[in-house]
Structure formats: C-alpha cells, structure tokens
Design goal:
alpha/beta, Rossmann fold, 2 domains, six-stranded mixed β-sheet, four-stranded parallel β-sheet, 13 helices, globular
Length: about 375
C-alpha cells in the first residue's frame, strides 16, 4: 500500500499505486479517454446571418456536435484525465458529480468508457431528456429538491461509497490546458483564420462552473490578442452580482431556470479577474433568442445558448451603432431537443410566468434595422446602411 493513504477528500485510498495491475488499468483508462478525443473531429463554427453591410459578423461555436451533445464533453474529458492522473479515480469505485444535467451526461459517457460506476447528483427539476441520456450510459441519478444542496449530497455519497467526488465547480478551470492543446479557444481562433475579421472583437460565454470563460480569457491574454470576453448570466444566479461587487461570498436563494448555467454561489472555477464584461440576461430573453436562432439557421438549442446569443446580439448592435467593424463569437452549447418540454413549450413558459414577446420583438427589430430598441444610433453615418 502506498504511504499516501488519503485523497483530497479524506477517502481511504484502497489501491496500491505501485501495483502492476492498477498501473495497467490506469494506462488503459487514460488511453481510452485520449482515444475519444482522437476520434472526435473539431466542432463547427456557424455563421448567424447578418447584413454584410453592417461590417459585423456573428458566429456560434457549435458544441452540440460532440459525442455526448454538449460543450460539457470537453470538460468531462479533461476532468476524467485530471482525476485519473491524480490517482483519484480508481477501479470499481464510483465517480460522483454534482450537476444540472449536461456535465453528468458527458461524465456518464466517460465513466462507461473506462468501466467505473457513475452517480449524478442533480436538482429534481432537471429535464427528462437529460435524465434519460444519463441513464442510457448506465449511470444512476440521485435527485435533490434544493439545487443548493447538490454539493453536500455529492460529497456525502462519495464518502459513503468510497468513490471520487469529481467536483466540476472547483476543478473545471484547473483541468483544462488553457494555453492551447486544441482547447475551445484555440479552436475558435484557428477556424476564424480565413474570415474577414479573424481576431474577434468579443467572445461571449455563459457560466456554469466558470471554466469555459476562464479558458477563453486566459488563452486570449496568453496569445496577446485584443479580443474581449463577456460572460452572460441568467436570472437566479450570483456570478453577475459577485463580479460587479467584488464579493466572492455572494449567494442567491434559488436555482437557475436555465439548465447548465447560473449558480447559487460564486463557484471556485469562476475567475472574475479574467472577465472583461458581464451582462445579466432575463430568462425570457434567453428563450426568445433560441427561438430566433431556430428561425435564422434552422437549429434548436438550449437556454444557455440563448443567454449567450442575447448578449452577443446586444454587442453587435453596439458595434453597428458606433461604426465599429469586427466579429463576435458565442457558443451553441447543447441541442434544443433536450428542452422541448421547457424552452420550446408555451405551457412551461406560462407556468413560469415568462413573457418572451417583448424580447422577441427586440431581436426582430435589431435584425431588421441594426438598431437595439431604445438605444441611440451613435454618430451620424454609423448606422447599418453604411
């Protein structure tokens, strides 16, 4: 038995790290996870149609084409490699994660790939399609009524079972190599290389763990680009308030209606100092944006995509009004077929008291005129017709 008997969470380490059988299992597990990346082509960069005369191009990085259908596939792969190489994930012991859905789907996939059990701890309100996908990969769902309780429940399950609590909210920004190595930021810049504005003026992300925004912002600074990073935050989330007040201890009382993003506390993986701008986006605006996206490109997407798209469109309107040219990139995080009973259901909207009409009208007006309703058009000659 190794002299290091404890993991970071205090679980007993019941495997000898020098045992040839364990090292053979570890090598095979790492190989399988890396082989998944080697099999996967890069995700597409889609253009959102805007009038060319505006001089502003808008793109969506389509993360829904990953094997598990979301942006979280990248994170799950990184977290599994991180946990394996740190000696935290062990043969026959469960991996437990606190998640609002998409991360759990992706982690369930990787757990099955390397042959370890997986338990997803999530709010009871998680969409039925995400639950189905998690169970499809042979994992088990453990539900909590209060979204704020997922952390404690996941840690308790890990302690009870001798498993490993993955803790994406702490380790997301550490597990990803933000300097390059085909991360999402490097991929975006490579795909923009032949576009008319290859260095985007803005990249818009949304925050669940905060790991994606940290990767994007760090990469931009490391490569010495002038690109700015904006984080769009939904209702019932405290990232915006924590960023604006500088208070890392800020909390909110209920969970986000936009699955996958928004948190009731400032997560350890959220790096406020790397973010250039934040926007608070009404949930009704996010739903209006995903419906506008379907009309524009024929693709359904989840609410996190709508939150980012609303902010990206607002930035586009500012650039047009000020006569600035350039490109803006946001993320298509996951497919809308996971949320047909939510963001695409008028019954659900009514039950939630959400009226998307005014926000849909704002988007329609912007795309028709180039002007964000209620916003000054800027200096003379800076309008969309120039």
């Amino acid at each position: 038995m190794s002299t290091d008997q404890q993991t970071r969470t205090g679980e007993t380490l019941d495997v000898d790290r020098t045992d040839p059988a364990y090292r053979a299992w570890l090598k095979e597990a790492v190989r399988r996870v890396q082989a998944d990346a080697n099999r996967s082509a890069d995700t597409h960069l889609l253009r959102f149609p805007l009038p060319e005369r505006w001089g502003v191009d808008l793109y969506l990085k389509d993360e829904s084409t990953h094997p598990t259908g979301s942006l979280k596939h990248r994170l799950a792969r990184s977290l599994f490699l991180y946990g394996l190489c740190n000696g935290w994930i062990r043969p026959d012991r469960p991996v437990i994660e606190a998640s609002s859905g998409s991360t759990a789907v992706s982690e369930a996939y990787f757990a099955k790939l390397i042959g370890v059990p997986f338990v997803a701890v999530m709010p009871r309100t998680t969409s039925a399609e995400k639950i189905r996908l998690i169970e499809f990969h042979g994992a088990r769902c453990h539900f909590v009524d209060d979204p704020r309780g997922v952390y404690e429940a996941a840690a308790a399950l890990a302690a009870e079972t001798g498993g490993h609590y993955m803790d994406q909210f702490t380790y997301a920004e550490r597990a990803t190599d933000w300097r390059g190595n085909n991360n999402i930021a490097e991929s975006i810049f490579r795909q923009l290389r032949l576009e008319r504005f290859p260095e985007p003026a803005w990249i818009v992300a949304t925050a669940g763990t905060g790991g994606t925004s940290a990767t994007l912002a760090r990469y931009v600074r490391y490569q010495q680009y002038d690109t700015r990073v904006c984080v769009a935050d939904p209702e019932n989330s405290c990232f915006f308030e924590g960023w604006t007040t500088g208070d890392p201890h800020v909390t909110c009382d209920c969970g986000s209606r936009i699955e996958g993003i928004g948190r009731p506390r400032m997560e350890p993986s959220f790096v406020p100092g790397a973010v250039d701008r934040m926007m608070k986006v009404p949930d009704a605006a996010a739903v209006a944006a995903v419906r506008a996206l379907e009309r524009a490109i024929g693709r359904k997407a989840g609410g996190s995509t709508g939150t980012g798209l609303w902010s990206a469109l607002k930035i586009v309107s500012e650039m047009v009004a000020e006569g600035r040219t350039g490109s803006v990139v946001t993320l298509l995080c996951d497919p809308g077929d996971r949320y047909l009973d939510k963001y695409y259901s008028d019954t659900w909207l009514a039950a939630q008291g959400l009226d998307i009409g005014p926000y849909a009208a704002t988007i329609e007006s912007l795309l028709r005129t180039g002007v964000w309703p209620g916003r000054p058009t800027g200096r003379p000659g800076a309008g969309p017709g120039v």
